[in-house]
Amino acid sequence: MTSATDSPKLASTARAGRPSAVRVSTERLRGELGPDIHLHLAAWERHLRSERGLSEATVRAYLGDVISLLDHARKLNMTDLTELDLPTLRSWLAKIAATGGARTTLARRAAAARSLTAWALRTERIPIDPGVRLASPKAHRTLPPVLRADQAASMLQPPALIQETHPIELRDTAALEMLYATGVRVSELVGLDVDDIDRRRRVIRVIGKGNKERSVPYGLPADRALERWLQLGRSDLANPASGAAVFLGVQGRRMDQRAVRTLVHQRLSTVEGAPDLGPHGLRHSAATHLLEGGADLRAVQELLGHASLSTTQIYTHISADRLKAVYRQAHPRA
Fold it and tell me: Is 283 a catalytic residue?
């Protein structure tokens, strides 16, 4: 028996939120921008990876943004980094905005440009930093949908037709329990190795963004599901290619992130009234339920692995009922 969560999919190379009018071919433009610019880009790419420790996804996004900028500058007859100036940066962002670029897209592209120009000044590739004065709109942070606690419980209850003893079903149940129990990112979940789990203390060790390590606790239901998968299911899928990976695909290799996303969508489709969420929606739900249960914001920040508390604050959309209850308990004139 195979699971739909392991069906192969073609990886999309397009990035969401990029207007088609400014989408550029990285390889084509690397050739068109000239050898000097190419060398600068290669050095900056190494800086992003080695010195700043950014994830591959962030490096790819920043490179695409800056290549778009340099292509815009090339069309204005600029051939060298030293020719970049503030009007060029502003006209580039204005072009993106005019073609429908979202505030989040503009904010990230401006951040990429500022990163490049600051690095270029520091490494003496340019005499002044035009990015210092480049303003960008603050990203409008919308609150994504979140599960109610009863919907999360229903999601974690396998449908009647599922064979709960089949290794794929044992794996899927354990993966869902761990996602919701810990609030980890899907990349952190599939990156787990067996040695990263301390079942005596019910804690997992994950490597998050920026290659930062943190420990995250999980509860008894997740521990039970994990135990069943590790003891009764994993050995049926494991082979020499499995290594120490906790969660395996049907071919025995480390489980793919796309398979986890498909699993979450499929399981939530069976829950009446539940929004259609992916793994990040479970992360958001876990954080929200922790805060609604009285957890401290800084504790949630630590659990989620956020570098900044401001990132965690998006999860503070606590229900009006809880706010009223806290007010009644705490205010002397309530």
Answer: yes
